[in-house]
Specification:
Layout (H helix, E strand, L loop, with lengths): L1 H6 L4 H14 L5 H21 L5 H20 L3
Helix pairs in contact: 2-3, 3-4
Length: 79
């Protein structure tokens, strides 16, 4: 998106990593494992966004899928 327009297209991966770190840090209330897990998942979503030609819908669908899986496991007692 706009970040790679400002910093150049080669910066997209680094911007996705920075975004994932911020995303992970906002989950600090879950402890270090929550920060690391959500940061890694956030980076994966960023890579999906980049890989999909900077279209947001595939990353949104991936996020919805992860959330649906997690909520299902929570209610079925899998975690």
């Amino acid at each position: 998106g706009w970040g790679s327009q400002i910093f150049g297209h080669r910066s997209a991966i680094w911007l996705a990593l920075l975004s994932a770190c911020v995303f992970g840090a906002t989950h600090f209330y879950q402890g270090i494992p929550g920060v690391v897990t959500t940061g890694m998942i956030g980076f994966l979503f960023g890579l999906i966004y980049i890989g999909a030609g900077k279209k947001l819908l595939p990353a949104i669908i991936a996020h919805m899928t992860v959330n649906a899986y997690g909520i299902t496991q929570l209610y079925l007692g899998g975690w």
